[in-house]
Amino acid sequence: MDAGGNGEKKYTLHISPGKAELNYFKDLWRYRELFLFLAWRDVLVRYKQTIIGVLWSVLRPLITMIIFTVVFSKLANLPSNGVPYGIMVFAGILPWQFFSNSLSDSGNSLIGNSHLISKVYFPRIIIPTSSVIVSLIDFLIAFIIMLAIMILWYSFVPPMSIVLIIPFLALAFLASLGLGFFVSALTVKYRDFRYIVPFIVQFGLYVSPVGFMSSIVPEKWRLLYSLNPVVGVIDGFRWAILGASQPLWWPGVAVSFAVSSILFLLGFKYFRSTEKDFADVI
Amino acid sequence: MSDYSIKIENLGKKYIIGHETQAGYKTLRDAIVEGMKSYAGFIFRPFSDRSADAGSEEFWALKDINIEIKSGDRIGIIGRNGAGKSTLLKILSRITEPTKGDIWINGRVASLLEVGTGFHPELTGRENIFLNGAVLGMGKAEIKRKFDEIVAFSEVEKFLDTPVKRYSSGMYVRLAFAVAAHLEPEILVVDEVLAVGDAAFQKKCLGKMEEVGKEGRTVLFVSHNMGAITRLCEKVALLGEGSLIKFGSANDVVDDYLKSGVGSSAVRKWPEISKAPGNEVAALISIAAIGGNGETSGSVEINKSVIIQMEYLVKKPDQILTPNFHFYNGEGTCAFVVRELDEKWQDRKRPAGYYKCQAVIPPNFLSEGSYVVGAALSTLTPLTVHFYERDAIAFQVIDNMSGETARGDYAGPMPGVVRPILKWSTQFEAREL
Known about the structure:
- Chain A: The chain crosses the membrane at residues 51-73, 85-104, 125-156, 162-183, 195-217, 248-268.
- Chain A: It is a multi-pass membrane protein.
- Chain A: Keywords: Cell inner membrane, Cell membrane, Membrane, Transmembrane, Transmembrane helix, Transport.
- The complex is a heterodimer of chains A (282) and B (433).
- Chain A is mainly α and 282 residues long.
- Chain A contains 13 helices and one strand; from the N terminus they run E-H-H-H-H-H-H-H-H-H-H-H-H-H.
- Chain A has helices spanning 19-22, 24-30, 32-46, 50-75, 85-112, 114-117, 126-154, 165-189, 193-207, 222-225, 229-242, 250-275, 278-281; one strand spanning 13-15.
- Chain B has helices spanning 28-44, 85-92, 125-135, 140-154, 169-181, 199-214, 226-232, 250-260; strands spanning 4-18, 56-70, 74-78, 100-105, 109-112, 187-190, 218-222, 235-240, 243-249, 267-269, 282-290, 299-301, 306-314, 319-320, 322-329, 334-339, 349-350, 353-361, 369-379, 384-398.
- Chain B is globular.
- In chain B, helix 3 packs across helix 4 (140-154) and helix 3 packs across helix 5.
- In chain B, strand 8 (235-240) and strand 9 (243-249) form a beta hairpin.
- With 433 residues, chain B is α/β, with parallel strands linked by helices.
- Chain B has two domains: 4-10 and 59-259, 3-Layer(aba) Sandwich (Rossmann fold); 267-398, Coagulation Factor XIII, Chain A, domain 1, CATH 2.70.50.
- Chain B has eight helices and 20 strands.
- At the A-B interface, strand 1, helix 3, helix 6 and helix 13 of A face strand 1, helix 1, helix 2, strand 4 and helix 3 of B.
């Protein structure tokens, strides 16, 4: 491949069909600073109107939490194993929101940055990844403020095990990235895909155990239910935050983890196989 | 031999053009419908050739390009729209992949296909400097080091912490260019876009590029402005329909390009009256730009006169007719409009027959650049236009800095539509200050 016998070994870049894919990881490393800059830009823009930005990321889960608590606890009388229903919803709504925001933001991210994609080169995967990172930061801010509200409102003392949310957050991150890669690449190719994403997100809210405990799902369906990676994440969050009252069903976590990993790998692979054409079709 | 900075071998780029999509991109709905169609087709006609998809067509935007560029060369790339110039730049900047061939590049490439790529309107000038710098390939440390210089160059110190959406367009462009100007790549790829904007900005752009070139760095510059190309570049590559037509010294290639009429035609003829612009009164036969030597020419030196000649046929006798020409420059600004002022024919009814009229544009009148001429034949009272062929022909006024011109010995850009030589006089007297 390399210049054959012409003796021309001294070059810094070789452009050839398929070559970009060969140096993929090298390039990712080379463009790491741009990645940080783009993520920083997205966060900055998001929180530019500081008060509104922060308020919004808290208000949305707070209101949803109140509504879910009223509907599922007071009207439907669903169990919460003795812990305040509101806290249980809180532990489910935030990871869900992280996941759903990641999905909708990364879905639109490539189209939103089309001017960059058609004018400069960089590994395109930076863009959806950066949107997932923004959602993660959103999550962290909302989580801290919501936790404070829970502590004040329910006199709730979080146990030490709360640090165990980290691996589950990582699991959510993995799943979000995987789906984000898929959705963003598909949206470039098929423009009407962006109408499908809000539907998936809305549908997902009801099939994920956001407003109720996943233990109310009959035993024989639970493994199937865990195919939804969010199930493992939310269960893990509840277990870490609420402790013994929310026993963790490990086979479910294992399935969720496996599904997330597969999603991530397939999403990454699909993105890589399509990204070289983005500039031509966007 | 390895002092090349860019070596392009058998480069080709193929696009598949779809015909059925209106918006330019596919929708999932289309894909599903198509998929079902081809599936159905497969069931009913399993042995038919399905590789030839009626809905799409191959198109080679670039084919078999071979160029070797030495480091320190300043190369201009010219060709008319659709010749593949932008595609070539996009491949060199790695925005899109070639379909075949190889490019070897020695050194860091920075490409400026647009001013202010990555600028975000909500962010401040300061934030955008960092962002834009990173997008153009500078590291954080490098931007920090050059930050003060960039700010000074941009002249927007006072508004550094104002969101750029509140900037005037001039400030915006200055800031954007300041960042770009502080790139230190070994190879700079610049698209035409840099040469738009106001005159002062253009001057700064071209000056900076000249400087970059003199520092021994390689510059690739795409432009339609032949004046800028010949001033800035030593060698020029002429592209046409995706192929490299000529690669050689700037003056030769630009000359060829303009003479061949590949750029835009200096003469147009309508041999068939039925297809010519016109009505029942008159029809256009030909229009041409004629240079100093009496030959049709697409390029005219600035200190030579140029003749615009129109031939037309009057079919219906006893009409009062006035030929008129409309001149537009490369930016689309109307430079001027002229009408026939031949005493013999003014306000006189014309017999049917063949007419030829000429208008002479004096030397040192038009500024350098490209001009498009529209040719019309009208009756003024009541106003009736018998034909008006917009963009009928085009010619180029070039200033190769020889002979007597308004430029004198100044080599930089000179904006404006006209460039007359005026009579200057300067008086001096010694005075106590």
